[in-house]
Amino acid sequence: xxxxxxxxxxxxxxxxxxxxxxxxxxxxxxxxxxxxxxxxxxxxxxxxxxxxxxxxxxxxxxxxxxxxxxxxxxxxxxxxxxxxxxxxxxxxxxxxxxxxxxxxxxxxxxxxxxxx
Amino acid sequence: xxxxxxxxxxxxxxxxxxxxxxxxxxxxxxxxxxxxxxxxxxxxxxxxxxxxxxxxxxxxxxxxxxxxxxxxxxxxxxxxxxxxxxxxxxxxxxxxxxxxxxxxxxxxxxx
Lengths: 116, 111
Description:
The complex is a heterodimer. Chain A contains no helices and 11 strands. Chain A is mainly beta. In chain A, the strands form 2 sheets. In chain A, strands 2, 4, 5, 6, 9, 10 and 11 form a 7-stranded mixed sheet that branches. Chain A has a 4-stranded antiparallel sheet with strand order 1-3-8-7, with no helix packed on it. Helices cover 0% and strands 53% of the residues of chain B. Chain B has strands at residues 4-7, 10-14, 19-25, 33-38, 45-50, 56-59, 62-67, 72-77, 86-92, 100-101, 105-110. The interface between A and B is medium-sized, with 24 and 23 residues.
C-alpha cells in the first residue's frame, strides 16, 4: 500500500445527491491533490493543497468543492453532479519543499464514481 | 503547450520481449519526467523518473531514454513479464507538483 487511503472505493449517486469523498495520508506529507481519471483521457489535476492552503484550482466546476482541514486529510464534496462527472477520482500526496520543489507524488487507490 | 502525447494506446508483447512506450512534449520548461504504472483497482505508482540532464536511466528491467533536442522520452521494459501487464503513464512537470500526464498505454504481456 502507498500510505494514501481513499473512501469510499465505489460510489453511485444521483444528480441531485450530495456526497463526499475522503482521502487520508499516513506519510507525513504536507501537500495533497485531487485528480480526475476518465477513460482514454490524461489524468486531470483538479486541486492542490499545500500546508492546508489551496494553491491550485484547475478551472474545476463549483459542483466540486474541496476541503483540507489538516495536512493529513482531504475531502471532495460533490453536489448536483452530471453524468459526465463519472470517473475515477484519485487523491495523491507529496512532501512540498517550497521553492526547492517537492518530492514524488503517492497516489491512493481512487474512488470509482458513477453519476446516474 | 501543456500536453504530453503518448503512444501507442495499447501494446501486446510476448513474454521475454521488449516493450517500448513513447512520449513527446512541447514545453521546454519541463524538468521532471516520471513514468507511472497502474494496475486495475489501484492508483498510479511511480515506476522510474528522469531529469533532462541525463539521456538514460536504468532501474532493473526498466529504462528511460530521453532525447532533449527531440523533446521525446520513452520507457523500455526489457524481458517483459506477464506481471508487467498494466497501464503505463508518462508525465512531465516543472518541479514535481503540476504533473501533466499522457493518455496512458495499456500493456499486455502474453505468456
